Inverse folding.
């Protein structure tokens, strides 16, 4: 970030010192966690790994057609929080989630709710590209097949090609759909994973550091893709790169040791952070 | 003066060499204070001296003990009066030499003792004594010589550490080549004996003949001992028993591997896995009598109740029990490859809304399949080579049949029957065992190589 600490302190200097001390030091979330048209609404989410609390009372909305980025130092709980949103934490032994998380008004931790179809509505892209050891075609067709989304081969072909097109991979692979997905380059593999996720038409896509294993060119392509996907999906992205958060997201949430410290417009977070911890982080004082 | 005493003396010398080598290094450096000018730590100079003192002397001692007797016998034989050996065949000469040796050691002698033989025996004893003292002298001289060599070589710039490293590498190479050469020796001996067998029985008859009756006539006028060496019934028998075993072991082993690696809670796994592995620890001879005395009668009685004609030693009984024996083999190998499928595959599938069983059958198993197939091939080669169970439960009748309720015999069973008891070493009957063994070896080696290749290829996929 080009903004220096000095500039920061000049900007925040307008606040009264009492106000400043209170707001800048507390662990209650600073900024507005709600949005006008939410898709997902999280309130007071706690996550426990055994006796250790990884997430402490986090409330956050994810709006329609927006990209929310989650930043923070390693171990701050941002990935854990992301994995709550499609109940992927269920697969971890000893992990317990309390609080409420709603998708379109429906509590996803409701006893009667089946997490399996939920994960089709809330898709996920992982840090390391993880295509299945199958052909490119089969990788994308996997989700539609298990959910019975298409009635015949022609429809499936159509869906696969549409998903690959949306993921910006079609032109590169259309002549070799029957070749293994693991043979693609890292960036292509990650776009294949995005295509695979899109194929089951989710409402929300969660991305857990999707570019951290990729080179800068592949990263730029994925970032562009994320911006395009915003037209149809809500996206929550965890990233270690503050530049990436600034480039792709409309809102940014800063996590610190399991607390959601500050939420706001991405611009505001990076130019005018209200909390001292956020400021320390984005100015590179730690993390 | 026993040679074990010499060994102990040699060890003592090595200890002394170590001590002096170390001392020498320190003194050439110019005292304890200047140890840092040495190339290596003083202990390495000591070790260097000890190895020089010990290894050549030990080698000489080994060679000497190996060849002493033959040389002495040759000397004694050459000194025997020519009249004694007149007109004797080489076998008879061997007997005479044996008698002389027995006479020397005070054991029972086959015939009357002639003065010439007595003289030869005395000469043998005398030579033995000389040789023993000579060995002591030579070995100790070599040890001291080695020590002196190391002493002379020790200078502060001598790279004792690197030299010790080289010596140890050579020792390791020698030991590992012993294992490899032994394998090679076994293979070659089996190969040559098989070739001898194929000189009397045509390979065509052996590999394609359908009648197995390995009786050879001892006398020309013997009845019913024509000898037929068509191994096809043995191959089919082996295949049938192995196939039954795999039909039992593969589904059970694979399913339990999937349950243990994907579904079982940690507590269940920690109990079930060792229990399953106990199966692998049961001696095969126990499986054998379990098959012969428990399973076979049950199958026969069940068959009789259903109006079927079941042999009391059926392929089914042997195959079933062999399958049980192989279960832990299949399950632990499959579990390993299933666990080797990265968690990211599972996560990716769950994140698309797949259930656990969809994930297992559509992602995990296809990903692990090459490894599982490799494991199964290894299990097949074990089944083919398994002996004890089939010896007890499968029977000896070389029936060419496709009926699992019939009695069959296998390659391994026939090798056992051909070689148990007193045998002539040059009859085709005995050498048939080598031909069978070679066939078995080639088949299992091929299976193992294919299996290892598949497993390796699969491993590379995720590394």
């Amino acid at each position: 970030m080009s903004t220096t600490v000095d500039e920061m302190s000049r900007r925040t200097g307008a606040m009264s010192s009492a106000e400043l001390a209170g707001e800048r030091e507390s662990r209650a979330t600073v900024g507005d966690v709600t949005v006008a048209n939410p898709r997902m609404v999280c309130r007071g989410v706690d996550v426990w790994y055994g006796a250790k609390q990884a997430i402490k009372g986090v409330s956050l909305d994810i709006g329609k057609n927006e990209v929310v980025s989650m930043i923070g130092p390693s171990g701050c709980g941002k990935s854990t929080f992301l994995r709550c949103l499609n109940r992927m934490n269920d697969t971890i032994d000893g992990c317990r989630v309390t609080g409420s998380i709603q998708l379109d008004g429906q509590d996803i931790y409701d006893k009667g709710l089946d997490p399996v179809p939920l994960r089709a509505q809330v898709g996920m892209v992982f840090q390391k590209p993880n295509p299945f050891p199958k052909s490119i075609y089969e990788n994308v067709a996997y989700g539609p097949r298990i959910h019975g989304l298409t009635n015949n081969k022609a429809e499936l072909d159509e869906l696969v090609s549409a998903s690959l097109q949306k993921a910006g991979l079609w032109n590169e692979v259309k002549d070799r759909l029957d070749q293994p997905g693991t043979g693609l380059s890292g960036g292509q593999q990650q776009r294949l994973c995005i295509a695979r996720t899109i194929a089951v038409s989710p409402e929300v896509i969660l991305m857990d550091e999707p570019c951290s294993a990729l080179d800068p060119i592949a990263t730029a392509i994925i970032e562009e893709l994320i911006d395009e996907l915003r037209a149809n999906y809500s996206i929550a992205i965890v990233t270690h790169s503050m530049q990436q958060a600034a480039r792709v997201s409309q809102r940014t949430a800063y996590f610190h040791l399991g607390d959601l410290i500050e939420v706001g417009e991405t611009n505001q977070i990076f130019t005018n952070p209200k909390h001292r911890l956020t400021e320390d982080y984005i100015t590179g004082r730690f993390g | 003066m026993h040679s074990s005493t010499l060994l102990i003396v040699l060890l003592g010398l090595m200890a002394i060499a170590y001590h002096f080598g170390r001392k020498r290094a320190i003194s050439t450096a110019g005292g304890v204070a200047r140890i840092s000018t040495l190339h290596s730590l003083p202990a390495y100079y000591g070790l260097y001296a000890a190895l020089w003192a010990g290894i050549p002397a030990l080698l000489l001692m080994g060679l000497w003990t190996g060849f002493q007797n033959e040389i002495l016998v040759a000397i004694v034989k050459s000194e025997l009066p020519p009249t004694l050996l007149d007109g004797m065949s080489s076998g008879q000469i061997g007997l005479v030499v044996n008698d002389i040796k027995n006479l020397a050691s005070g054991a029972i002698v086959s015939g009357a003792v002639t003065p010439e033989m007595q003289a030869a025996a005395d000469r043998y004893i005398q030579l033995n004594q000389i040789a023993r003292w000579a060995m002591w002298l030579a070995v100790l001289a070599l040890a001291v010589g080695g020590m002196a060599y190391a002493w002379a070589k020790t200078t502060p710039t001598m790279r004792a550490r690197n030299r010790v490293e080289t010596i140890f590498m050579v020792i390791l190479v020698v030991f590992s080549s012993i294992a490899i050469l032994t394998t090679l020796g076994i293979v070659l001996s089996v190969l040559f004996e098989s070739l001898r067998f194929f000189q009397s029985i045509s390979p065509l008859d052996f590999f394609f003949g359908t009648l197995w009756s390995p009786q050879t006539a001892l006398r020309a006028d013997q009845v019913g001992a024509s000898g037929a060496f068509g191994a096809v019934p043995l191959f089919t028998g082996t295949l049938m028993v192995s196939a039954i075993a795999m039909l039992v072991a593969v589904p059970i082993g694979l399913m339990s591997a999937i349950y243990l690696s994907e579904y079982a809670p940690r507590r269940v796994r920690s109990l079930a896995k060792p229990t399953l592995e106990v199966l692998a620890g049961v001696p095969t001879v126990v499986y054998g009598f379990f098959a012969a005395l428990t399973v076979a009668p049950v199958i026969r009685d069940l068959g009789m109740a259903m109006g079927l004609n079941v042999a009391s030693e059926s392929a089914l009984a042997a195959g079933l029990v062999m399958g049980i024996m192989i279960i832990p083999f299949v399950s632990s190998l499959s579990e390993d490859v299933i666990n080797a499928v990265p968690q990211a595959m599972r996560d990716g599938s769950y994140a698309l809304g797949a259930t656990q069983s969809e994930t297992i059958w559509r992602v995990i198993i296809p990903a692990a399949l090459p490894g599982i197939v490799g494991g199964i091939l290894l299990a097949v080669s074990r089944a083919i080579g398994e002996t004890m169970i089939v010896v007890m439960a499968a029977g000896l009748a070389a029936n060419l049949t496709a009926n699992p309720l019939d009695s069959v015999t296998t390659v391994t069973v026939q090798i056992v029957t051909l070689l148990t008891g007193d045998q002539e070493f040059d009859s085709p009957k005995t050498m048939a065992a080598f031909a069978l063994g070679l066939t078995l070896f080639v088949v299992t080696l091929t299976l193992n190589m294919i299996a290892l290749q598949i497993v390796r290829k699969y491993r590379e996929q995720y590394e």
Q: What stands out?
A: Residues 228-462 of chain B form a domain with the MetI-like fold fold (CATH 1.10.3720.10).
